[in-house]
Amino acid sequence: MIDRWDTRPYLQRLGDATSQWVNVALANGMPDESLSGRAWRNTALRSPPRWQWRIVRTLAEVLFWPIDQGQHCRRAFEQDLARAGRRAAAADNLTYLYKDNR
Hints:
Number of helices: 5
Structural class: mainly alpha
Order of helices and strands: HHHHH
Low-confidence stretches: none
């Protein structure tokens, strides 16, 4: 059994990884941020929002409407933050383990 901190189903993790890859490869974004989360950040938290990100956000909300009823990008942003926090906590645990084994 693989011990991992992200216990979501495989297809959900694959979709998230694809979104992060698109964000980096095509939009020159940060590797830990999903395209939908970035779209929300660049429209809801930026004044004035850039028109490009409004388009991306609108497309994502329409695409994922059956799942998130118009809250996909906000939820993606929140998940990006939560994932970053879990990853940081996991890294802290590894640091403590590494220090103890010296």
